[in-house]
């Protein structure tokens, strides 16, 4: 089941297919306070219903913003991103492996890091917090 959550964010710049313009748009929406507050509100509501959520974004800076906002709302996320130590990654994967339906687990990661081959059966809700133009990333 797909639920689209429209935001008020608008980026009225040049042709979005130009790489530099697309990168600027990604930076802009990752830093947009209203958009990030909406994402966090939707996540908090889903977690309150016992959903086990995976949040994907493209940029580490966006991951950091969302993680900090979620912490302000009492939600501690398992973070999966490039540059993690092997011990931190093992701990996160172990916690995911122990998760059960209804636990309210929250994982937030970067699309390039999680991407293809990621398997966490307990996760039941996906939040795409950034646009994805290539389905091979999922």
From TrEMBL:
A UniProt-annotated Pfam family: Helicase_C
InterPro entries: Helicase_C-like, P-loop_NTPase
Helicase C-terminal domain residues: 46-127
Superkingdom of the organism of origin: Bacteria
Protein name: Helicase C-terminal domain-containing protein
Organism this protein belongs to: Dactylosporangium sucinum
